[in-house]
Amino acid sequence: PGEHSPASDPVDTHCPYCSLQCGMALRPVAPDGGPVGVEVVERTAFPVNRGALCGKGRTAPAVLSSRVRLTEPLVRRPDSGRLEPATWEEALDRIAEGLAATGRAYGRDAVGVFGGGGLTNEKAYALGKFARVVLGTSQIDYNGRFCMSSAAAAHQRAFGLDRGLPFPLADVARTGCVVLVGSNLAETMPPALRHLTELKEAGGRLIVVDPRRTRTAEQADLHLAPRPGTDLALALGLLHLVVAEGRVDEEFVERRTSGWPEARAAAMAHWPELVERITGVPVPELRKAVTMFCGAENSMVLTARGPEQQSKGTDTVGAWINLCLATGRAGRPLSGYGCLTGQGNGQGGREHGQKADQLPGYRKLDDPAARAHVAAVWGVEPDALPGPGRSAYELLDALGRDVRALLLMGSNPLVSAPRAAHVESRLRSLDFLAVADVVLSETAALADVVLPVAQWAEETGTMTNLEGRVVLRRAALTPPPGVRTDLQVLGGLAARLGWEKGFPADAEEVFEELRRASAGGPADYSGITYRRIAEEDGVFWPCPERTERTEGAMGAEGTEADGSEGAGRADSVDAESADPDGAERAEGAERAHPDGAKGTGSGSAGRAGGPHPGTPRLFLDRFATDDGRARFAPVGHRPAAEEPDAEYPVLLTTGRVLAQYQSGAQTRRVAELNEAAPGPYVQLHPRLAERLGADEGAPIAVVSRRGRAVAPARISRDIRPDTVFMPFHWAGPGRANTVTNPALDPVSRMPEFKVCAVRLELSEG
Ligand code: SF4
Where is the composition biased (Basic and acidic residues) (predicted)? Predict the structure, then answer.
């Protein structure tokens, strides 16, 4: 697909897919004298995966050489109505004209931008800046809104700061008990499973909460299978028992939290028998879970999409955080709450400006000080920056009406958005749609202009993984002729729209500006450089650049020099205890001290007076709230937006399979993965199948108020009899998201992918 990189040695980099960002190396190869490609070489030094890769990562180079990847721009011709090859000049001109004409005719907010959680930090930053400075629109959001936004909102509310895991993933192996809520990590990120295996080998316990007996649940000491949409009640029931059994850590609650009386009262209204009725989880299992969780000296709760993708996702996560706070399992080593982010850069994607209400550095768009800081870096007046815009689904829902032109980068909402048939009709109703992608995705196929862009192994950039560790993806190949990078695309469009400067194509140059824009913000990257990332194999944010001024200010009050509440409030790891991965890096040695004090990974970074070491573990001394205390959320159970009734009597929940990733735009192009997971299916319990008269493989229509999806039956006792499951990676008749409910969480604006009411029919196909 490309030319040989200057280096013939393997190039250290990271997987293009999920939020683990597994380390791998790429070695250039030219089989049989054909075009130069790359093969994956094991890289054991990166502590998150220690060389292990799942099938998606291992086969990722296949997409680089895929026959269906785009290598020339496409423009829809008015005469034929078809997408046909065009020059880059014509394609970029058409996009610039399309966006500008819409803005002139209908106002700047009639132009929208939709990004992706797979874009590098540099691209996310440049896309946010492009939207707000060049287009002047408030209408930008990204598909990461569908990923962990509920956990982000709950994190903010409880701790004053949102970072997926406030500790390194390796800590999971060294705690005493892990509650995994709504995560099928054995299929979504298999290399992470080894940390749980080590936990169990060391005598730790694993509790899995999932309506299905998944591959992950099979590993559990205790599997709780609540009815979909009732995780909140389950957490409240556990907290009720914690109180009733006298297991509250009163000293911790008193010293480090606020809001306990209200949260306690809410939990006491959810007595175990009531919770059993709501969730279907028997009271003895609730008691067993509390005994395991509180019986260990250290415990963690990790949530994923299960509790988060609900119309009450923020409160649901809040209830699990409450459990951690009441038992003193937060703000200390080897205990706490964390979110297992999904997309490769779901974390960094929002930290740097793709999210509708945020500016780089995780600053709030409606904060005057934040606007002034970022505007100064961008060389514009603060008043020139638009305010917060619509969230992802609301933006898609407004297409063709309030928002009439759209630039879309790194996303395929026609498959991944809820109520997808409606989203498809909104996309079709646009005056103008431009898409930058590596293949002609289902969404790109609707566009007026499609731009072929470079892939992960063909360009350099940084990603922020689920731990808040900023890693460097290095180019191992040059892109094929006819392909440009997303940064080149944004630079070309900006130039056509009057911004000759400010949008460089060089990723490191963009990162240098990002560092300045993030300085002093909650997600402070100012002390992180490409060089440091390379030397340290990743740096955890917050990592402020140490200057005389910031050292003094942060050392004293944990407050930034400009007076804003910044990273200093969360900077609770001292320089000597900063090594995140001590256990791994001190191979063969005794286990590292829980806080990493015996580790060696941070090298000279940790020495007093040197650069900030980064912050592997947050909140050890104080939380990032104004008063330093974590806040309980007084949350109560409420039903899903759509409950079963006579017409739609069954619950549908959706999710992922091992061999496919998100909308499948890349993984469906890999033969080995397609063989392993060729298409959608409907998992249902034998009792449900019998009632329907369905045999294994029979075509089942799953029908909701929004549409129908048809896929073969997969009959299994691993699912509750009142629930069916569909994976969502495919388009066409089996598109699960045709059926899902776009009911939004009032805080995070997360759609309710995880639960809706359906009826089942035997279909002819
Ligand atoms: Fe890639 Fe995630 Fe698989 Fe690791 S677990 S190889 S990051 S898809």
Answer: 582-596
- Which residue's entry shows tokens 């990189």? 5
Residue 227 has pLDDT above 50, yes or no: yes
pTM: 0.91
**Residues 20, 663: contact at Cβ < 8 Å?**
no
The alpha carbon torsion through 754, 759, 762, 765 (nearest 10 deg) reads -50
CA–CA gap between residue 497 and residue 88 (Å, rounded)? 16
CB 432 within 8 A of CB 78: no
> E strands of 545-686, at which residues?
630-631, 650-655, 682-684
In SS3 terms, 45-94 reads as CCCCCCCCCCHHHHCCHHHHCCCCECCCCEEECCCCCCEEECCHHHHHHH
Phi/psi for 747 (5° steps) reads -100, -55
What does pLDDT average to over the chain? 90
- Assigned fold of 89-142+346-506: Rossmann fold (3.40.50)
- Residue 79 neighbours by CB under 8 Å, 6+ apart: none
**Residue 53 Cβ < 6 Å to ligand 1:** yes
Could you give the 3-state DSSP secondary structure of residue 439? strand
Q: Using the predicted structure, report yes or no on whether residue 559 has a pLDDT greater than 80.
A: no
Q: Is the CB of 169 under 6 A from ligand 1?
A: no
Helix, coil or strand: residue 437: strand
Identical fold for domains 89-142+346-506 and 650-762, yes or no, is no
Instruction: Residue 360: name the closest of 614, 118, 130, 19 by CA.
Output: 130
Relative to beta strand 650-655, strand 756-762 is antiparallel
Task: Calculate mean pLDDT across residues 386-398.
Answer: 97
Q: Where are the domains of the chain?
A: 89-142+346-506, 165-339, 512-631, 650-762
For the stretch 371-390, what's the b/e string if a residue is b when 16 or more beta carbons lie within 10 angstroms of its beta carbon? bebbbebbebeeeebbeebb
With a 6 A CB cut-off, is 471 part of the ligand 1 pocket?
A: no
Is residue 470 a contact partner of residue 464, using CB atoms and an 8 Å limit? yes
* pLDDT reading at 711 higher than 70: yes
Class of 650-762 per CATH? mainly beta
What does the alpha-carbon distance between residue 666 and residue 660 come to, in Å, rounded to a whole number? 9
d(CA 351, CA 120): 11
Domain 165-339, architecture per CATH: 3-Layer(aba) Sandwich (3.40)
Q: Is the CB of 615 under 6 A from ligand 1?
A: no
Q: What is the SS3 assignment for 469?
A: strand
